[in-house]
Design brief:
By secondary structure, the chain is of the alpha/beta class. The protein has four domains: 3-81, DnaA, N-terminal domain (GMP Synthetase, Chain A, domain 3, 2-Layer Sandwich); 129-274, Rossmann fold; 279-348, Helicase, Ruva Protein, domain 3, CATH 1.10.8; 356-446, DnaA protein, C-terminal DNA-binding domain (Chromosomal Replication Initiator Protein Dnaa, Chain: A, Orthogonal Bundle). It has helices spanning 3-17, 20-27, 47-68, 129-140, 159-170, 183-195, 199-207, 224-239, 260-267, 279-292, 299-308, 313-330, 336-351, 356-366, 371-374, 381-398, 402-408, 414-430, 432-447; strands spanning 31-36, 39-44, 74-79, 149-152, 178-182, 211-215, 243-248, 270-273. It has a five-stranded parallel β-sheet, with helices on both faces. Strands 1-2-3 form a three-stranded mixed β-sheet. Strand 1 and strand 2 (39-44) form a beta hairpin. The longest helix has 22 residues, at 47-68. The two termini are 24 Å apart. The structure holds adenosine-5'-diphosphate and magnesium ion.
Length: 448
């Protein structure tokens, strides 16, 4: 095992012990610089994140590393400039996809945009046509049509693609100043600039923009200071008719620990969702990708993918790439039977059952709570409600007994669990938003 693999394995463990927002802000930016016997050196991009990891998460990190390799006993934290560049700028390409010809993609350092994402490559079908129409309107009349534009939906459904397509299109015009940034990056920029006393100049930089795009804005949940500074930036931009575009995995009202005044700003423009693609849309996506990649695929095999891969566009693309890669290797078209074999493990993960732990940790992550909070005694509403959702899912999806569900939550009485399940059941039947929320949580449980 090399140091990269060691860190990946440790991260996989750490993500269950720290809140999602924290994970994104502090851990994804760190790397292992060196690993010698029992000592690991961890490199961080600035002194603030070094201190944060060292003071707040040392035990978690040590435990995770030690679980991966029991020899490891000590950690040194170092501020290092030789940080890996933002991993998101280029999606990982599975080895088997190498045979398909991809263009070279570039990250524009001035705007933060990646030119791989364009409208030209964006497939429009019923699941995303509202979001697409809103995006087009914004391109026609930036700052005037819809401001802010808020696009929400589950993972892999094309939010980043659409946001960046808007940015790239607008960037064709000379005079427009654009910035694309993911919210976890925004959080760490704001936090370190506060620490380095340069927050005012950072804010000025943002306030000069004509278009500001913030991806995955749910990551500002619970970040009070960031929210406060962002609120001022938002207002300044809004007042001079600069276009603001945001994406999130959920509605503004479902983002936990989001200041009221920010929420109402987010809701003040246009809020549109991208839902999961239905069968027709999935088929359309596959057909289009085949043309784009100039590949020849058996219609039955294609139909098999469209029927069985249901979660999102990313997985559809992945399945199709794999099929094509196998065809290239074998130098012949695969029929339905061989396609089934090739894709077996992908479709199996679609139907895999979840463990109670996975359900509970997914619910906690979705609402940005600690596992401990979720299973604690507290009756605070913003914890009690997610807890009821977790109970409901355990009952509904795993058919657990009321008694055993109660035990998972610190020995609660089975009548409490029955009450929770009935209550959520009833609310789901009345409230479409809750249905959306639950399907996003399920997507986390089964889809990732
Ligand atoms: P999200 O940000 O919602 O998690 P992404 O924008 O990263 O999703 O999309 C995941 C992958 O699927 C990307 O490779 C993207 O290009 C592709 N994709 C998503 N939606 C579409 C679409 N409508 N047309 C073409 N490709 C898409
Ligand atoms: Mg995204």
């Amino acid at each position: 095992m090399n140091k990269e693999e060691l860190w990946q394995a440790a991260l996989a463990r750490l993500q269950f012990n720290v809140s999602r927002a924290n994970f994104a802000a502090w851990f994804k930016e760190a790397v292992i610089l060196d690993w010698q016997d029992d000592l690991v050196s961890i490199g961080t991009p600035n002194s603030f994140s070094k201190e944060w990891l060292e003071k707040k998460h040392h035990q978690d990190i040590l435990k995770a590393l030690n679980e991966v390799c029991s020899e490891i006993k000590k950690i040194k934290y170092v501020v290092s400039k030789q940080q890996k560049t933002n991993i998101e700028s280029r999606p990982p390409v599975a080895p088997e996809t190498k045979q398909i010809q991809f263009e070279e993609f570039q990250l524009n350092p001035r705007t933060g945009l990646n030119n791989r994402y364009t409208f030209k490559d964006f497939i429009v079908a019923s699941f995303n046509e509202m979001a697409f129409a809103a995006a087009e309107a914004v391109v026609q009349e930036p700052g005037r049509a819809y401001n802010p534009l808020f696009i929400y939906g589950g993972v892999g459904l094309g939010k980043t693609h659409l946001l960046q397509a808007i940015g790239n299109k607008l960037d064709e015009e000379d005079e427009i100043k654009i910035k694309y940034i993911s919210a976890d990056k925004l959080v760490s920029q704001i936090v370190s600039s506060i620490y380095e006393r340069s927050i005012e100049s950072l804010k000025k930089e943002f306030q000069r923009l004509d278009v500001l795009i913030v991806d995955d804005i749910q990551f500002v949940a619970g970040k009070e200071k960031t929210q406060e500074e962002f609120f001022h930036v938002f207002n300044a931009l809004y007042e001079k008719n600069s276009q603001i575009i945001l994406s999130s995995d959920r509605l503004p009202s479902a983002i936990p620990a989001l200041e009221k005044r920010l929420r109402s700003r987010f809701e003040g423009g246009m809020v549109v969702d991208i839902s999961r693609p239905d069968y027709e849309s999935r088929r359309a996506i596959l057909e289009t990708k085949i043309k784009e990649w100039k590949a020849d695929v058996d219609p039955e095999a294609l139909d098999y993918i469209a029927t069985n891969i249901q979660n999102n566009v990313r997985e559809l693309e992945g399945a199709l790439r794999r099929l094509i890669a196998h065809q290239n290797m074998k130098k012949k078209k695969l029929n339905l039977e061989s396609a089934r074999k090739v894709l077996r493990d992908l479709t199996r993960t679609q139907t895999k059952t979840a463990s109670p732990q996975k359900i509970i940790s997914s619910v906690a992550a979705f609402y940005d709570l600690d596992l401990k909070e979720l299973t604690s005694e507290t009756r605070k509403k913003d914890i009690a409600f997610p807890r009821q959702i977790a109970m409901y899912l355990l009952r509904k999806d795993l058919k657990k007994s009321y008694l055993s569900i109660g035990n998972l939550f610190g020995g609660r009485d089975h009548t409490t669990v029955i009450y929770a399940c009935n209550k959520i059941e009833e609310e789901v039947s009345k409230d479409g938003r809750l249905t959306d929320e639950i399907s996003m949580i399920r997507q986390r449980i089964y889809g990732e």
